[in-house]
User: Fold this.
Amino acid sequence: MSDIKMTDVTIHIDKDTDDNTRQRIDATLRTREGVVSVYMPNDKPHMLVVEYNPDEISSTNMLSTVQEIAGHAELIGM
Assistant:
């Protein structure tokens, strides 16, 4: 049995992103192979934290996904 690598990344989106768009981001990221969890705090609607396996998906791939849905997004940490 091998160890599964886990890491997280914070992605910043526009603070005025509506709830429907935030829900689409959440649902879409959760379908990606390697994504373990998506956390989008209600008190910080401009931030999302994604926990993932870097052997299966990259942070730039997730960023591209979010940009396709929300328009503007940027990585805060890797």
Notes: Helices lie at 19-30, 59-70.
